[in-house]
Design brief:
By secondary structure, the chain is of the alpha/beta class. Helices cover 31% and strands 21% of the residues. Strands 1, 4, 5, 6, 7, 8, 9, 10 and 11 form a 9-stranded mixed β-sheet that branches. Strands 2-3 form a two-stranded antiparallel sheet. Strand 8 and strand 9 form a beta hairpin. The longest helix has 13 residues. It is globular.
Length: 254
């Protein structure tokens, strides 16, 4: 399998202006993310798909590879589809979000490897257990309902599946020796896609459920595409707010 990691990078940001250019320990957030992605062993091909020449210049400054993509792209997936259109020699594309400077290389390898091993699937992603009621009820934490054979059958910002008879502590913790699975799963926004899926996705209008939840993976679910998910221990902290960035800066600068 020929695999490429693509980091979709958008200069504007609703909650934290130009966050990818913020610097910690002498590096931009985008450079930290790029270097984290380069640690993956499943491929050494990493490209930033940028919407602004300033981001391309930033990547050039640290010796990375970047491509300028259309400002008309509505999502990171659309931006990666533009890269896929230009690279017909690549089978799988991995989406590493630009504001995930602490993404684990093992998570990238696991998700890409899962899709490479499952010809029946269109997309692979990652999940981790939800073990707190606060996170379960947080709309910023996207929940996933898992079916058999690692198949994701629903994504929602709501606490799903809904515990009709009341939430119990046992639902938020599982004894590994019991052989049972967790009830609640958090979606981690890392994806691997087949090239033909990306080219299809870029031609489709947003779906009905996607527009309600503002979750683009629902476009694939509504269309009957198969999404599979790999379980990983935890979600790496992303950078959405100034507080997130300050906490990241404290971690890397000590």
């Amino acid at each position: 399998m020929r695999i490429m990691i693509v980091i979709p990078a958008r200069l504007a940001s609703g909650r934290l202006s130009e966050k990818l250019l913020l610097r910690a320990a002498g590096k931009s957030v985008l450079q930290w993310t790029y270097e984290a992605a380069k640690k993956a062993t499943i491929t050494d091909r990493v490209i930033v798909a940028a919407d602004d020449p300033r981001l391309v210049a930033e990547v050039d400054s640290f010796g990375g590879e970047a491509r300028l993509t259309s400002v008309m792209c509505q999502s990171g997936t659309d931006r990666i589809a533009e890269i896929a259109l230009r690279n017909d020699d690549v089978d799988l594309f991995v989406n590493v979000q630009g504001d995930e400077p602490e993404i684990a290389a093992t998570t990238i390898d696991t998700v890409a490897g899962l899709l490479a091993s499952r010809p029946d699937a269109d997309i692979a992603t990652a999940i981790c257990p939800i073990t707190s009621e606060r996170k379960l009820n947080d709309p910023a934490c996207v929940k996933v309902i898992m079916g058999d054979h690692d198949r994701a059958i629903c994504f929602s910002r709501a606490p799903v599946p809904f515990a009709r008879d009341g939430l119990t502590p046992a639902m938020l913790s599982v004894d590994p020796s019991s052989g049972t699975r967790h009830s609640f799963w958090q979606h981690i926004g890392l994806y691997a896609y087949r090239r033909d899926f990306l080219l299809w996705f870029a031609t489709q209008p947003p779906g009905r459920l996607e527009q309600i939840e503002k979750l683009e993976q629902l476009r694939a679910i509504e269309a009957g595409k198969t999404i599979i998910a790999a379980e990983v221990p935890e979600s790496a902290p992303g950078i959405d707010t100034l507080e997130d960035f300050r906490e990241f800066k404290d971690r890397v600068e000590g």
